Amino acid sequence: MSSEIVWMILGMGVVTYIPRMLPFALFKGKELPPFLQGVLKNVPSATLGALIFPGVLFIQEDIWFGILGAAAAFLVAYLGANVIVVVLGAIAVLSVYSFII
Amino acid sequence: MAELAVNRSASEFRKGIQAGISIAIGYAPIALTFGLLAKTTGLSIGETVLMSLVVFAGASQYISLSLVTLGTGIVEIILTTFIVNIRHFLMSTALNEKSEEDHFINKAIYSFGITDETFSVAAMKEGTVTSGYMFGLNLISYVSWVVCSGIGFLIGASLPQTLQESMSVALYAMFIGLLVPSMKKSIKVVYLAALAACFNTIFTLTNALSSGWAIVAATLLSAVLVEIIEGLKKKQRGEGHE
Predict the structure, then answer these.
(1) Are residues A25 and B108, on separate chains, in Cβ contact within 8 Å?
(2) 3-class secondary structure for chain A?
(3) Does the CB of A64 have a partner CB in chain B at under 8 Å?
(4) Labelling A1: which of A91, B144, B182, B227 has CA 20 to 30 A away?
(5) Domain segments of chain A: what residues?
């Protein structure tokens, strides 16, 4: 192992870990003002929106690939399926699609 | 009593593992490709696995490889990694509000495993989140990430082309699978997600912000705006009653 790469990896590890851990050290939870608590409760749903779009459109060069996959996942999820079924369903639909294309 | 507590945390751990299966499936193609790319970049097998073991953050690991290829200095690579991963601060802060009280040491350990995906699964779970659940969830995701990085390097190839392409949708499908049940229950979730999606699309497509910052800014803007609007509506309704 080259020592420069190892130092780089260790540095990357430290700067990635600190933002992950720091909030648990700084806040006990539930002591923030109610408005901020409300904002933090909104964070998960908002994060998911931002994680899905626009990223899903660009998973392949063919933009329809992402659109079709997202639509399939949405439909399966809307019918009330478990998350794993949603994942496998979207993969299956796209496998058929790339087989046809 | 002690036995009861142990049983409970064992079942929480198992629940976490189960909840993490989708993540483990979704990480496989990404980690396999990472291993392959690391090899072509000139890293050794030890360095490749070490990076997945120590960093455990997909996007920044990919970026570091392309920066190494460009001959970028390590300080700049570390700084870039920090900027890409600072969004986890927001996620940990949100998760901290939801997590069950426990020794800081336990939280400090499982916080290592907070990624976009583990955060999403834990945050969308009903009720509070226990340390046992977080350990299970993060562990299965971590094992998939590290092991598949190594396999990708060793077999020097990823999955068959069509399967690889189809599996690239896995994590997005998981995000959708997590979001839709909440959307059905609450119109507020629809607004939150749609607004953040719009902001993030604008920030990303106009190149106004790098992708790490774009997610932070879009999430915060959406979360704050919806909270303000909800507050105003409540106030209005309250005054209407008087």
Answers:
(1) yes
(2) CCHHHHHHHHHHHHHHHHHHHHHHHHCCCCCCCHHHHHHHHHHHHHHHHHHHCCHHHHCCCCHHHHHHHHHHHHHHHHCCCCHHHHHHHHHHHHHHHHHHC
(3) no
(4) B144
(5) 3-100
